[in-house]
Amino acid sequence: MSVLRQPEVLGRTNRRRVVGVTAALSAAAVETIAVGCWFSLVVVGSRTTVTALAGLGVLFCGSLLRMGIFGATVSDLGDLLQPKELGVTVALTSTWIVWLFVAELIGDSLGVAVAAVVFAGMLTGQFVLERYIFSQSAVDGRPVTLVVSGLLLAAGASALLATVWFTDWTISSSPLALGSMTIVLRIEAAHLGVFVFGLFAFLAHQRRLQRLLSP
What keyword terms does UniProt attach to this protein (predicted)? Predict the structure, then answer.
């Protein structure tokens, strides 16, 4: 009997794995776009009241979508515009603001390091809140999974900030003639930082989602 059931068990396991990877990619993509836009508005560009508010709105919407992806993956997703869900979204948005504030308050490489530690702790708490809101029945016997996910995401954010603060290089291609237009491809350090952040975000979300989806 166990032999007959084994293909079904393996099939469920593979489906969970595919769902976890897909959800992690989606969450990482949403978070990378939102954080990248916020970063370009408040860190790379000239910070004004308008750009700060616009960046905050983008960050909030990205946090809401990312939380919705997590909720739809681990449970039956309800209305995201409920007090608890909105509260968790505001908490996630606030962690980013606190992280940047701490980094700028201290400054230099020490500020990046201290902010990363603070950010990792806040993210771990954020992940606990999300798991409680959307997956109260899920049992995770390894809390270290959430800590590692928080550290991974904080490392990606630190890499993004470091590329803007401490590097200043640009790689440009030769001019490409396209009809009456001339196109020049440029890759800046900030672009690499966004890519590294997206990679770390995927690893962080994939790790915690696979843990919750494991039988």
Answer: Membrane, Transmembrane, Transmembrane helix
